[in-house]
Each structure stands twice: as structure tokens, then as C-alpha cells.
TrEMBL record:
Heme binds at residue 438. The keyword Thylakoid does not apply. The keyword Signal applies. Gene3D superfamilies: Cytochrome P450. Pfam families: p450. One of its GO terms (molecular function) is monooxygenase activity. The lineage of its organism: Eukaryota, Viridiplantae, Streptophyta, Embryophyta, Tracheophyta. It comes from Arabis nemorensis. PANTHER family: CYTOCHROME P450. Keywords: Heme, Iron, Metal-binding, Monooxygenase, Oxidoreductase, Signal. Its cofactor is heme. This is Cytochrome P450. Belongs to the cytochrome P450 family. Residues 1-20 form the signal peptide.
Length: 511
């Protein structure tokens, strides 16, 4: 935190002592987290500001109900829950009482504007209906064709070159992030706005600005005291000045894409999402905001999950062997939409990675009226109510004593079948659930399966660092500093037939 913010924090603590006449050495009894008069848990929050995911998880583990209430000076009362019954109540049962809310949209509004991830009500519903066309089975089959072209002509050739250059290390996360950005541009924006996949090559101004805007916007949401960033925004200082400049660059680039699309529409009938959005009669500003939301979702989420999978898999040789066997048994005639559905072990591995490292580790709503959650927690009008997929993946009550371990077999029905379980979406809400469930869930699985299968079939990926990477909760979470890897051609010798697969490992290494 910058020096002025630290000074303001200390000043607030001193003022609270003077104004209340109470000593801060006497916390409220039985409060989780430890909470003091006036300042609440501000000290604990500030102390844990760089490890909020693990701090919240520890608090929820201590709570008998799996829910905690956070009282913090200069911040609204916050209810954080890892209780599936509460999650279902928030996301479905009483959906109308828990919109994103103005406090949420204020945090992200400068960047996301009125895009689908930052609005409620009719505006959200209208954008959702427009987007639904891109996620039908027919659209997904066409999507596989785009994936095939990009993987075969761009991704695999890069990996071939890397394998031939004496295993020259590169940042796998950056490679995949650039790949998914190119896919978004082709599928949703109808442009071949291709950026180089080489992680060592410079990123575009648009990409750099997008990363800055995402990082600063996320920092607003986790700031110990919110008025600090609001004051900095008012005077155009520090990170808020960076955000203003970055958003301006992002909007300039997106506006150019929109105008380019309009020119093309006069000479050809484009079928991409952006063309339909423009044809719907929405204002240029609404179209721009929707495009920014789509780019954010498609660019960052799946690349982070795939990267984490390639960090975990090398430590589980039996699982990796079985994955390669499953992939090779299904890709004899090339991967298509139907064959991808049959990669059940691969989907189990992806689910297990997202259980432990969800791309969106937390999500908040704001209560319109007073309410009470199923576990008895009182919610007041205006409260921030946060469900917490990261913590839910680490609850023994939900996943057993081995909840900290990577075990794909927890996702299948029995030891004699490879059929995946139907897991309660409110126990595993990585794609949300209820009316706002992610439209792109199936598309995300299609993309992740195709990319991972294509890479595992041909290459061995070796992470260079041995230390556990830090999981950073930005707007979408990722590994801090990326992941340096070496790549080599996979041995093409015989692998086991499907009937020989050891789908259920007897033991897995603990993460």
C-alpha cells in the first residue's frame, strides 16, 4: 500500500480510540474474524491483504456454519459464505434480492461500463439473450473448427519450435493467454486481430492497457479502505491515473474494431457476435462495454485453468499416462465436438483443477432488502454478500479430508465406470449457477479439452520452478509471474488401451 494510504489507516485507528474511549485491546467476544470496536477487523484485513483467499478460507473453516460476517471500518458489512445452501439461496431461490448492485458496479464501472458482467435487470437480460446464440450445439461444432485451425497452424508449430530449440524455456501462461485472445477476436469479434504467440515478443498497446485496467479494478475491490481509491480517482493520482489512461486506450481500440465491423457489414453478411450486437440497434457505448466483458472472460479464464493443470499433472505420472491414453483412443480420426465429449478423465482433471483454483475465486452480490440465509445468518439491506468458490473447494464438509489433494477420481460415479458425477452446482459454483449461470460453460470445456488434448498427445510439459506458485485473485485469478516451462516431444511408443486405463490412482501427491 502507498504511504498516504498507510498514514490514513493509522489516523483512523487513532481517531477510533479517541472518539470511542475504548481500548483496542478488547475485541468482541467469539467474533470470527477478531473484531474490535469501530475499526472492526480492519487490522486483520490489512495484515492479510496479500493472502485474502487463504485468510477467508481459514475463517470459514473455523465457522460452524461455513459463513462469516466481516465488519470493517470504511467498508460495508460483508457476509462471506462457503455453505452450498446459502449459495443456492443467493443465486437461485431469492435471486431477485441479490443483484450485483450499485456498489459492485461502481468498482468495475470505469472499466466494464454497462457490459453483461456489470449490470442487472433488463439490460443484463437483453445482453444475455443476444449472447445465447453463440453457445448452441451448432455454434459449438463450428467453434471446434476454429480451434482446430488455430491449434494446428499456430499453437502446435510454436511448441514444435520450442521443443527443437534445446528446450528453451518460455512462459506457458502468457502463450495460452495470447492464444485465447486470438480465439476471442476470431469467434466473437469477427476479426483476425492476431497477436504473436511468442511470450517473449512485445504485447500490443491494447493488451497492455487491458492488463493494467484489470489489475487496478481488481485492487479496488480488495482495498482495505475504499475511500482511498475513490480519493485517488477524484484527484487523478497514482493507480487511478493509470486506470483512467488504460481504460481510454482499451476503449479507443474497441471503438476502432466496432467501426471496422460496421464497414464490413455494408459489403458482407457477418455472423459473429459483434455483428449481431451492432445489428440489434444498441448504442456504440453499450456495444463497446459488451465487447470488453467478452474479451475479459474469454482471454483470461481458460488460459489460467490450463496453465494450472500443466503445473499439477507432471507430479501425477499415472494420471498423465492415463490422460494420454484416453486422448489417443479418441483422436484416431481427429478431435471433433462428439469425441471431445468422451474425454471424461480430462474433464475430471479440469474440474479438479477448478475446484482447487477457480478462475473466479469469489463473487459478490448486494442485498436489496433485509433477509436471512438458510444457515440463520442475518443479512441487512445493502450488505455485500459473497459466495466463495476458492474456500468451498477446501472444505472437508464438502469434499472430505483429502480436499487439499488433486484427485480426479472424486468426479466419477464408481470405480467400474468412467461416467462423471452430476455434482450440485451450488457446491461447485465455478460457472455460477441459477439464472446467471455462465453461458460459456460448455464452450470453455470444449476449448480446454481441445487445447490440452492436442498438447498432451504430442508434448511433455515440464514446469521449471519447484515452489508452489502464488494464486493471484484479480478479476480472474491466475498464477503470479506466469509459469516458465520446457517442452519436449512425447515418446510415441505404445500406450495402454482404454481397457487398461488406471483411471483411479491409488495415491496422489498432495498439493
Amino acid at each position: 500500500m502507498e504511504a498516504p494510504a498507510i498514514f490514513l489507516l493509522l489516523l483512523l485507528i487513532v481517531l477510533s480510540i479517541v472518539l470511542t474511549g475504548k481500548s483496542l485491546i478488547y475485541p468482541r467476544r467469539n467474533a470470527i474474524p477478531r473484531t474490535y470496536p469501530v475499526i472492526g477487523c480492519l487490522i486483520s484485513f490489512y495484515t492479510n491483504r496479500n493472502r485474502l483467499l487463504d485468510w477467508y478460507t481459514e475463517l470459514l473453516t473455523e465457522s460452524p456454519s461455513g459463513t462469516v460476517v466481516i465488519h470493517r471500518l470504511a467498508a460495508r458489512r460483508t457476509v462471506v459464505t462457503a455453505n452450498p445452501s446459502n449459495v443456492e439461496y443467493i443465486l437461485r431461490t431469492n435471486f431477485d434480492n441479490f443483484p450485483k448492485g450499485k456498489p459492485f458496479t461502481d468498482i468495475l464501472g470505469d472499466f466494464l461500463g454497462d457490459g453483461i458482467f456489470n449490470v442487472d435487470g433488463n439490460l443484463w437480460l437483453k445482453q444475455r439473450r443476444l449472447a445465447a446464440h453463440d453457445f448452441t450445439p451448432k455454434s459449438l461444432r463450428e467453434y471446434v473448427t476454429v480451434l482446430r485451425d488455430e491449434v494446428e497452424n499456430e499453437l502446435l508449430p510454436f511448441l514444435e519450435d520450442a521443443a527443437a530449440q534445446d528446450s528453451l524455456p518460455f512462459d506457458l501462461h502468457e502463450l495460452l493467454r495470447r492464444f485465447t485472445f486470438n480465439i476471442v477476436c476470431i469467434v466473437f469479434l469477427g476479426i483476425d486481430h492476431r497477436c504473436s504467440l511468442n511470450p517473449s515478443s512485445p504485447v500490443s498497446e491494447f493488451d497492455r492497457a487491458f492488463q493494467t485496467a484489470s489489475a487496478v479494478s481488481a485492487g479496488r475491490g480488495s482495498a482495505p479502505v475504499s475511500f482511498v481509491w475513490k480519493l485517488k480517482r477524484m484527484v487523478g493520482f497514482g493507480s487511478e491515473k493509470d486506470l483512467r489512461n488504460a481504460v481510454g486506450e482499451v476503449r479507443r481500440c474497441v471503438d476502432e474494431i466496432i467501426q471496422e465491423n460496421k464497414k464490413k457489414r455494408k459489403s458482407s453478411a457477418n455472423r459473429d457476435f459483434l455483428s449481431r450486437l451492432i445489428a440489434s440497434g444498441e448504442s456504440d457505448e453499450t456495444v463497446r462495454d459488451m465487447v470488453i466483458s467478452i474479451v475479459m472472460a474469454g482471454r483470461d479464464t481458460t488460459s489460467a485453468v490450463i496453465t494450472r493443470l500443466f503445473w499439477i499433472i507432471p507430479g501425477h505420472e499415472e494420471t498423465e499416462h492415463d490422460l494420454v491414453s484416453e486422448i489417443r483412443s479418441e483422436r484416431t480420426g481427429g478431435l471433433d465436438y462428439e469425441s471431445l465429449k468422451k474425454l471424461s478423465l480430462l474433464k475430471a482433471c479440469l474440474c479438479e483443477v477448478m475446484r482447487l483454483y477457480p478462475p473466479v475465486p469469489w463473487d459478490s452480490k448486494h442485498a436489496l432488502t433485509d433477509d436471512r440465509l438458510p444457515d440463520g445468518t442475518v443479512v441487512r439491506a445493502g450488505d455485500r454478500v459473497t459466495y466463495f468458490p476458492y474456500g468451498m473447494g477446501r472444505m472437508e464438509e464438502l469434499w472430505g479430508k483429502d480436499c487439499d489433494e488433486f484427485k480426479p477420481n472424486r468426479w466419477v460415479e464408481s470405480k467400474t465406470t468412467r461416467v462423471l458425477k452430476k455434482v450440485n452446482p451450488f457446491k461447485f459454483p465455478v460457472f455460477q449457477a441459477g439464472p446467471r449461470v455462465c453461458l460459456g460453460e460448455e464452450m470453455a470445456y470444449v476449448q480446454m479439452k481441445y487445447v490440452v488434448a492436442s498438447m498432451l498427445d504430442r508434448f511433455e510439459i515440464e514446469p521449471i520452478a519447484t515452489d508452489k506458485p502464488v494464486f493471484v485473485p484479480m478479476l480472474t485469478a491466475h498464477m503470479a509471474g506466469g509459469m516458465q516451462v520446457r517442452v519436449s516431444r512425447r515418446d510415441g511408443s505404445r500406450v495402454k488401451r482404454p481397457s487398461e486405463l488406471h483411471f483411479f490412482s491409488k495415491s496422489q501427491q498432495q498439493q
